[in-house]
Amino acid sequence: MSQAPSPHARGLQPFHLAFPVTSLANARAFYGDLLGCAEGRSSPEWVDFDFFGHQLVAHLAPDEVSRAAVNAVDGDDVPVRHFGVVLSMDDWHALAERLKAAGTRFIIEPHIRFKGEVGEQATMFFLDPCGNALEFKAFRDIGRLFAK
Question: What are the VOC domain coordinates in residue numbering (predicted)?
């Protein structure tokens, strides 16, 4: 799967997210090798990744990583603290297959949530090797992203 088009190419401003990791080597293997995020600047304590056009910064802070609380959403226990990207449906399916092939253990298996409702979406949740929860989702009609 190639990286999604840069969001700022579509008129969106990139966001910046800094988060704790237990190992920069594991973060590089996961975000760089598995997810295909290009590496930017780094130091012995942190590393930048191009996360689908956004700046993601993994900071070495093992004591800050912890299991997130969960809330019920459409029958699933969704980790309250998580981040991710909304992909095209084709890219979402390709990523799901790549993650399955790599032996990823999903918190919430790839599936369609809110079937038949205005918020219908493909979703999957998994942990990075440091315990941070990620969600990747897709909408057949991206115009429904914020629909009520």
Answer: 13-139
> CA-CA distance, 42 to 58, in Å (whole number)?
9
The Cα–Cα gap between 139 and 26 comes to 30
Residues 6+ apart with CB under 8 A from 43: none
Q: Enter the pTM of the model.
A: 0.86
pLDDT in tens, 57-84: 999 999 998 877 899 888 888 888 899 9
Question: Which residues, listed in sequence order, are joined to residue 135 by a DSSP beta bridge?
Answer: 84, 125
- Report how far apart, in Å, the C-alpha atoms of 141 and of each of 10, 70, 118 are: 16, 27, 10
Q: Which two tokens stand for residue 24?
A: 């920069």
Residues in a beta bridge with 148: none
> Which CATH fold would you assign to the domain 7-144?
2,3-Dihydroxybiphenyl 1,2-Dioxygenase; domain 1 (3.10.180)
What's the number of CA atoms in the CB half-sphere (13 Å) around residue 31?
30
Using CA atoms, how far residue 140 sits from 14, 16, 49, 81, 85, in Å, is: 23, 26, 27, 25, 15
